[in-house]
Amino acid sequence: MTTSARPRAATAPNRTWPLYRQCSGIALDLGSARTRAWVSARRTILDVPTVTLPGDGTSHPILRGTIVDAPATARMLDRLLGHLLPRFGSRLIVLTTPVLGGVTFRKEARTALEPLRPHTVLTVPSARAVATAAGADLTRPLLVVDIGAGITEVVLLADGAVTDARHAVLGTSDLDGLTPPTQITDAVTAMVTTMLEEDHTAQTLDALQRGVLLAGGGALRPDITYPLTARLHAPIKPVAAPHTAAVRGAARLLEAAHTHPSTTATAELPGQTH
Predict the structure, then answer these.
(1) Angle of helix 182-198 relative to helix 222-232, nearest 10 degrees?
(2) Rounded mean pLDDT of the chain?
């Protein structure tokens, strides 16, 4: 099953950009199988299973890119991160989001983040965070394929903003004797093909010829990446440490906020969702 959307380029109004030099911050990637966080005070990545303790709500509070139990997610995040943060001071959280997660995901996520007492929460599409981690040239169209445990996303970025996106409810956690890796390869190929057919500009074709940026745990599996190169007839470019690319990109955006020179300047995260 695949879902698609062709959102407009980001046109949201700029927001006042606070001074975060003296505040703590967290870059956060909430995945179906793993939760990854980068805390500014420690500057290391916390990478743990997305599960709750017995008796603490739904055992798997995030499924296929959807927060199915926000209170349980909140308790999980408090247990994992609460003790790493100072008791006082402002807190900025940069949160990666599934590109088609929409308002519902962001609403549930804000509920889940309440125990961390954020001053500001900035959300950024996972594909944009991946591109940031890779240091990709965003002045040209870019195709990002993110193969996670529960969903697989194909996203077209233009000038850093999402201009087209598809996802399949299929990931590496589904692979077993009955679901071979070729199903993910087929799903990605079908999504890219549809994007090409429905794109009345040359952006998708230009991005494909430039090469596909590949992230997520699926990027570590040669039984997915090698056939994908042949099927798409295009270069496949796995991001370094692809399973943590999204949180590392969010961390870079977090650091950019921390070092912003003025409290009066206005800015927004490229490709930011609101």
Answers:
(1) 30
(2) 86
Q: pTM for the full model? A: 0.85
User: What pLDDT is attached to residue 261?
Assistant: 46
Q: What is the CATH number of the domain that holds 117?
A: 3.30.420.40
The 45-49 sheet, strands edge to edge? 45-49, 34-39, 24-30, 91-97, 120-125
**Residue 13 neighbours by CB distance under 10 Å:** 7
Looking at the fold, whether 181 and 214 belong to one and the same domain comes out as yes
Q: In what order do the strands lie in the sheet with 152-158?
A: 2-5, 161-168, 152-158, 142-147, 212-215, 236-238
- In terms of DSSP bridges, do strands 66-67 and 62-63 run parallel, antiparallel, or are they unpaired? antiparallel
Domain shared by 121 and 188, yes or no:
no
Can you say how many angstroms the Cα of residue 41 is from the centroid of all Cα atoms in its chain?
A: 22
The domain total for the chain is 2
- What pLDDT band is residue 223 in, cutting at 50, 70 and 90? very high
* Pick from 180, 199, 188: nearest CA to 234: 188
Q: Is there a domain that residue 274 lies in?
A: no
| Backbone dihedral angles phi then psi of residue 124, each to the nearest 5 degrees | -140, 135
